[in-house]
């Protein structure tokens, strides 16, 4: 799923269009969650939203053309599935945690 961060979007799966078509063809699908992009966000889908999970370590900067990190606490995305098909999700972050990775080797 392209997320609007150029250096991450280069690593999308090769059959993303096939995946999205398959998901959109199934009326049972209420949303799509994915990870490994190190930031939690919501992206518009055709019939339903797409949600990325945040990192449990450090967050990648969103929207850039070059690698970067943001000073955000680690977190996770929770999903609550209701019997009637409703779906609720939120990003939960660790309280009182400051993550400051040493990126000096990447300069």
In short:
The protein contains two helices and seven strands. By secondary structure, the protein is α+β, with helices and mostly antiparallel strands.
Could you characterize what this model shows?
The chain has two helices and seven strands; from the N terminus they run ααβββββββ. It is flat, with a radius of gyration of 16 Å. It has about 110 residues and is α+β, with helices and mostly antiparallel strands. The chain starts with 5 loop residues before the first helix and ends in a 14-residue tail after the last strand. It has a three-stranded mixed sheet with strand order 1-3-2, with no helix packed on it.
Molecular shape: flat
Cross-sheet strand order for the largest sheet: 1-3-2
Compute the average pLDDT: 86
Number of strands: 7
Provide the β-strand percentage band: 25-35%
**Could you say which structural class the secondary elements and strand pairing correspond to?**
alpha+beta
Query: So how many helices?
Result: 2
Low-confidence stretches: none
Q: Please give the alpha-carbon distance between the first and last residues.
A: 28 Å
Helix content: 10-25%
Helix-strand pattern: HHEEEEEEE
Radius of gyration: 16 Å
Largest sheet: 3 strands, mixed
Strand and helix map with partners:
Blueprint: H1 6-9, H2 16-24, E1 32-34, E2 41-43, E3 50-52, E4 59-60, E5 69-70, E6 75-81, E7 87-93
Parallel strand pairs: 1-3
Antiparallel strand pairs: 2-3, 4-5, 6-7
């Amino acid at each position: 799923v392209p997320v609007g961060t150029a250096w991450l979007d280069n690593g999308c799966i090769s059959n993303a269009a096939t995946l999205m078509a398959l998901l959109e063809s199934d009326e049972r699908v209420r949303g799509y969650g994915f990870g490994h992009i190190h930031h939690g966000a919501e992206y518009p889908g055709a019939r339903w939203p797409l949600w990325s999970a945040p990192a449990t370590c450090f967050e990648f900067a969103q929207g850039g053309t070059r690698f970067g990190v943001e000073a955000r606490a680690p977190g996770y995305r929770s999903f609550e599935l209701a019997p009637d098909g409703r779906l609720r999700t939120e990003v939960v972050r660790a309280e009182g945690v400051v993550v400051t990775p040493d990126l000096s080797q990447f300069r």
